[in-house]
Amino acid sequence: MSLILGLETSCDETSVAVVEDGRRVRSSVVASQADLHGRYGGVVPELAARRHLEALLPTLDRALAEAGASPSDLDALAVTTGPGLAGALVVGLAAASSLALAWGKPLVPVNHLEAHAYAAFLDSTLQPPLVVLIVSGGHTGLAELTEHVRFRPLGETRDDAAGEAFDKVARHLGLGYPGGPVIDRLAETGDAGAFPFARALLGPASLDFSFSGLKTAVLYLTRDAAQRGETLRLADVAASFQAAVVDVLVEKAFRALALTGRKSLAVTGGVAANGGLRRAIADRAGVAGVAVHVPAAKYCTDNAAMVAGLAHFLRASGSVPRGPLRVDPSLALGGGKRRRGRAKGV
Ligand code: KG4
Ligand code: ZN
After folding, report:
1. Would you tell me which CATH number, out of the four given (3.90.230.10, 3.30.420.40, 3.40.50.1240, 3.30.70.3340), belongs to the domain 128-294?
2. Measured between alpha carbons, how far is 167 from 252 in angstroms, rounded to an integer?
């Protein structure tokens, strides 16, 4: 049995978790900063780093207590080192390094995007190979997990991430931050066909994404209506926007399955909590004979259980990166640099 304590501070959630053998979550505590950033309409990096500093030790105490574990029970610690906000990542890495030194435990650096994929293994018996669609506020991409911890990137966003588009559209519509959950709820009562936004498929074979044009289309739609003195039904705008995002995500995910010949799909990241996306993926999977794995909503958004989970499989396959630990705000899936780092924050 391996017991790993994970720390996650890459954006605006301070999280600590204890996970057994990469799958069994003994505790997962998330201290959200959404209230702090809500009034600014997005994450303010300096405030995020300071709040992580305040929240980390109480969160750690709770995670150990809820897991019924003491530091001496741990086999290793794990921490997100990128991608994310530099100052926020530094707080997590400094804390994790100090604890690892004080407790005499190894420390495993974890890629946040790969950790999102490993949320699919929590409380699950899932096995690779599979295709993973990662849809978060900072990233949208597709990869093939050929075997444990071996990612083959297949496509990524050329501009905004899907969650970023939800957040920006929500901000424009005056719906607050984070925008995804609000739009998701509003869309339930809206007409998805009210405004036929274009679907950015980027050609018949592309596995890349682009959401900035859609975001701009929503802005123009509402601006033009306001100039004409018309008020649009917000629920219809939300439903039409969400349907356009969902259609593209589903189409690209099934293109990736066709390309790789895989029959197993994991969908993770904050936007995987979206009701419309979950329903659309399940419908299409039923027709295509694909098994879909969507983690519980609490493991889709940022959390440390996925960090501890991935660390277990990195250790088990002898793939823990060596050398001095440092944060890398623009780390890509698979270890390289991202084509486009999100300028997270306002
Ligand atoms: O994975 P995550 O917690 O943080 C990042 O790594 O970015 O994802 C946060 C993103 C935000 O953009 C938020 O608006 C979006 O996930 N999100 C949703 C939903 N819940 C969270 N988007 C659509 N529908 C939801 N229900
Ligand atoms: Zn994330």
Report:
1. 3.30.420.40
2. 21
